[in-house]
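Field log, afternoon session.

UNIT: design team B
ACTIVITY: writing a sequence onto a fixed backbone
BACKBONE:
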């Protein structure tokens, strides 16, 4: 039988000790405490009781703090253990996981918007409302990633922390996204960009991207000791897919990497993540401005598409299309590019109609 205790005005505490359960709840009115106690004892007797107490006490902010500590090895800012904090930072720098940086950014956004929410009270409606608010400032693909991070967080609470969510992890469908690009990059554009950068590393990074189809983060996080020039190949740590993989290198890529100076920190390049894109975009804009001036001076017609709507990630599209001519077998091609989904690979394989016609003709 439950114990009902008056703990002051509008504070009635119901305590149940039954069949291995010891749970309590506080109510404003005694009648509410008695109703809850009878219902809970009945559920325990029938074996259908689910203890959601912790979910009703834990905010999303607290869960995010625990997730960062346990899953991402990030200690709270006020941690007294300075040695552990420095070790965690050192480990993070050593691994240089781009995906983790993006995950932290998304977690911070989620905490800002929903941090005060009690876990037990988070519904699919709350998630959809959060998504719709974010769609005012970001693209659907980015909104989908944030929702995926939020659902991963709630699954972590339910599965890893055993914080039982009363309604399970809310189900929210992904937004339809059509962000496929068919932008091919010409040799003239590559040469123009490499000739108009102030970065000593960018030309090598651009050419490596073209030779290997590596993602920006994979290039940024490339460690020299993970390159095997005897094969040749490069071991890529914690890629976008969350797995390590070893990518074979074409001879030109191996020659390029071997010629680069050895850095003290072990990385192949000093430029990190978004700074690669920034350097690329600045070089692209300088090259475009120079191209327009040269056309004006020479009285030549301007190609409206030259160096326009060009992103660093387009180099991965271009490299995949070029590598496909060397590796017609899509399974082998996917081993080089790191695509786990062949449907996604087909989006990157942008072979032109003229190339297909030439293949048919031969």
């Amino acid at each position: 039988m439950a114990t009902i205790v008056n703990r002051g005005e509008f504070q009635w505490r119901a305590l149940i000790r039954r069949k291995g359960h010891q749970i309590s709840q506080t109510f404003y009115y005694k009648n509410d405490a008695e109703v809850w106690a009878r219902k809970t004892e009945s559920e325990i007797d029938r074996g259908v009781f689910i203890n959601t107490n912790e979910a009703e006490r834990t905010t999303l902010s607290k869960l995010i703090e625990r997730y960062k500590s346990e899953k991402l090895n990030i200690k709270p800012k006020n941690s007294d253990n300075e040695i552990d904090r420095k070790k965690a930072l050192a480990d993070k720098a050593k691994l240089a996981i781009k995906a983790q940086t993006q995950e932290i950014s998304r977690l911070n956004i989620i905490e800002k918007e929903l941090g005060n929410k009690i876990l037990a009270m988070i519904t699919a409606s709350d998630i959809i409302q959060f998504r719709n608010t974010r769609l005012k400032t970001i693209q659907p693909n980015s909104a989908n990633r944030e929702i995926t991070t939020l659902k991963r967080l709630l699954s972590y609470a339910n599965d890893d922390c055993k914080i039982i969510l009363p309604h399970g992890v809310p189900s929210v469908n992904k937004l339809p996204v059509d962000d496929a690009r068919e932008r091919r990059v010409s040799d003239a554009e590559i040469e123009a960009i490499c000739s108009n950068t102030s970065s000593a590393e960018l030309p090598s990074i651009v050419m490596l991207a073209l030779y290997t189809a590596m993602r920006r983060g994979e290039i940024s996080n490339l460690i020299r000791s993970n390159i095997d020039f005897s094969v040749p190949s490069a071991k890529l740590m914690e890629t976008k897919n969350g797995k390590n993989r070893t990518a074979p290198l074409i001879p030109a890529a191996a020659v390029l990497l071997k010629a680069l100076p050895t850095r003290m920190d072990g990385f192949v390049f000093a430029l990190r993540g978004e700074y690669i894109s920034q350097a690329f975009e600045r070089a692209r804009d300088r090259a475009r401005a120079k191209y327009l001036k040269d056309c004006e001076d020479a009285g030549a017609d301007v190609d409206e598409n030259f160096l326009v709507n060009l992103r660093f990630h387009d180099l991965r599209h271009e490299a995949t299309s070029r590598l496909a001519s060397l590796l017609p077998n899509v399974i082998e091609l996917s081993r080089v590019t790191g695509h786990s989904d062949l449907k996604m690979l087909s989006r990157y394989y942008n072979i032109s109609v003229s190339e297909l016609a030439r293949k048919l003709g031969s």
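LOG NOTE: DSSP finds 16 helices and six strands in the chain.
NEXT ACTIVITY: expression trials, pending approval
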